[in-house]
Every structure is written in structure tokens, then in C-alpha cells.
Specification:
The chain is α/β, with parallel strands linked by helices and 296 residues long. The chain has 2 domains: 154 residues, Rossmann fold (3-Layer(aba) Sandwich); 121 residues, Orthogonal Bundle (N-(1-d-carboxylethyl)-l-norvaline Dehydrogenase, domain 2), CATH 1.10.1040.10. The chain contains 14 helices and 9 strands. A 6-stranded parallel β-sheet has the order 3-2-1-4-5-6, with helices on both faces. 47% of the residues are buried.
Length: 296
């Protein structure tokens, strides 16, 4: 089993920003990594680092890491790869999915003999690459323990949070707080400048005082310089915020600040900022401060 033997190959399916970072982590830990992506050219940088292309990692690996845009896309891609799973295979799904859909996928794979671990990653691609990620894991605890070495290679910290569906919910809750921290930083910097203060000095004050947050370490400089090279795309977070609001509605609750956040994210998408880093929310806040974005 690849969970305890680095000579056994680990499959990685989905080579976006985060999937690529996860594959790099596995390569750095000495694993043989077999990669697959719908668009094969995305695999070239990883192959240059020592990964191997596989037309079907499900056929070639006992353990496969999946990292795609939504659970629906996971279902599509796994369907395209067919019923090629090895006996007692483990699927480590790092996709941030909708909880009900994730649970349905887990049950579907269980019926096919696949051991599914719902494993969204609480970190950007850059943080993951640097070994600063947290893996939120839900599913069978015995499987979690068995593949712990692989999980540790993906993210030095992992937390078991409960049965299937729990990790997707926890990731949404975590991303809610993270996104609002980003929004608060953006608005604070815009407010500081509007009342005659320097943004860089304001950021230093935030970081030195009790307003500090981890977001300021990762996104503060990007907001100051306007370097929105993506670590995690704004459109990806907008997708997550839509999931948050849908989940809240399903449980009969409202998220008033998150509702406003989505309005600003969607304004940023209309400004063609969706493919940029999520710190580009600053531009939507600046536009709103000029009265160019309606909050309704």
C-alpha cells in the first residue's frame, strides 16, 4: 500500500494550482508520482520534476489523490477513467465540494470497494508548496491511519473531523472566516488611504497590533503592490462562497456578511478579475468605495 511504502506509486488527478502543489509535495517526499489531467500539457512541469504521466492512475495506483474544481467535475473525470479502481484502493479527494454531493460520491465509491477520504486542503497553493497546509479529513478512521504518511507528505498537519461530509462543511466554515479576513484587510487598506494615511504604514500597524491575522502575511504585500498572480483564484473562492450560502439556506440560516462578500466577489468577476488571485477583491472594494458597485 502506498500509504507506508514510498516505492509504490501515488496517483494525482487534477493539475490545477493546488493539485500541482500537492504533486510537488509528494515528489519532494520521495514518492513515485503518476499524474493525470484532462489537458495533458499541464503535466509537463511535473514530469520535468520527476513525475510520470499515466493515462489512468486508477488502474496504476493503490492510492490516488484527486484535486478538481467541484465534486461534479470529480464525478465526471472518474467516470471518464472508468471502473479501473484497484481492489481496496484509497481515494484522497482534496476537492472543496458541496457536502451532500461529497457524501453521495463517497457512498458510490464505497459500493465499488473504494475507500474514500474526503480531504480538502486549508491553504493556498503557495502555502501548500511551502509545507504550511492543513488537511481536513473525513471518512473511515482506520483508512486515515493507514495512509497517514501520504497525508503527512501532502500537508504536514492533518485533522480528522468526522464522517463523510464533515470535512467539506469544515472547509466551507474555514473559508468563510478566511475570506472575510481578506475582505476586512482590503477594506481597511482602502479606508486608510481614503482618510489620508499610507497603505503600507497601515498594514504595518495591523500586523504589529491586535488586528493582525495570517491573511496579512500572505495577502498584504499583494494588495499593496497590485501583484495578483494567482495563489488561489478569486473565482474559486466565489464558488466556495456560493456553496456556503447554499448550505446555510439548507439549514434555514442566513449569513449576512457573507452575502455582501459574494456581491463584491461577483462584482470582481464582472471586472474580469476571476482568474486572478483572491486578493484582487481589493479592486472590487476600491470600486465600491467610489460608488461604482452596488451593495444591493
Amino acid at each position: 500500500m502506498g500509504g507506508s511504502n514510498n516505492s509504490q506509486p501515488i496517483g494525482v488527478i487534477g493539475l490545477g494550482l493546488l493539485g500541482t502543489a500537492l504533486a510537488e509535495r509528494l515528489l519532494g517526499a520521495g514518492y513515485r508520482v503518476l499524474v493525470y489531467n484532462r489537458t495533458r500539457d499541464k503535466a509537463a512541469p511535473l514530469i520535468a520534476l520527476g513525475a510520470t504521466w499515466s493515462d489512468n492512475p486508477l488502474r496504476d495506483c493503490d492510492v490516488c489523490v484527486v484535486c478538481l474544481y467541484t465534486t461534479e467535475v470529480v464525478e465526471e473525470v472518474l467516470g471518464e477513467l472508468g471502473a479501473a479502481w484497484r481492489p481496496k484502493a484509497v481515494c484522497i479527494d482534496c476537492t472543496t465540494g458541496e457536502p451532500t454531493a461529497t457524501l453521495a460520491l463517497a457512498e458510490q465509491l464505497q459500493r465499488r470497494g473504494v475507500r474514500y477520504l474526503e480531504t480538502p486542503i486549508a491553504a493556498s497553493s503557495d502555502q501548500t508548496r511551502r509545507g504550511e497546509a492543513l488537511a481536513l479529513v473525513a471518512g473511515d478512521q482506520a483508512t486515515f491511519a493507514e495512509v497517514e504518511p501520504v497525508l503527512r507528505a501532502l500537508a504536514p498537519r492533518s485533522m480528522y473531523v468526522g464522517p463523510w461530509g464533515s470535512a467539506a462543511k469544515m472547509k466551507l466554515v474555514s473559508n468563510l472566516v478566511l475570506g472575510l479576513n481578506r475582505l476586512a484587510l482590503a477594506e481597511g487598506l482602502v479606508f486608510a488611504e481614503k482618510i489620508g494615511l499610507r497603505r503600507d504604514v497601515a498594514l504595518q500597524v495591523f500586523q504589529t497590533g491586535n488586528a493582525n491575522s495570517g491573511v496579512m502575511e500572505t495577502k498584504g504585500a499583494k494588495m499593496l503592490t497590485g501583484d495578483f498572480t494567482p495563489q488561489a483564484k478569486l473565482s474559486q473562492h466565489a464558488k466556495d462562497v456560493r456553496l456556503m450560502l447554499a448550505e446555510a439556506q439548507a439549514f434555514g440560516t442566513a449569513l449576512p456578511v457573507t452575502t455582501l462578500h459574494l456581491q463584491l466577489l461577483e462584482a470582481a468577476e464582472r471586472m474580469d478579475l476571476g482568474e486572478l488571485d483572491n486578493s484582487a477583491i481589493l479592486r472590487a472594494v476600491e470600486a465600491a468605495a467610489r460608488g461604482e458597485v452596488s451593495s444591493r
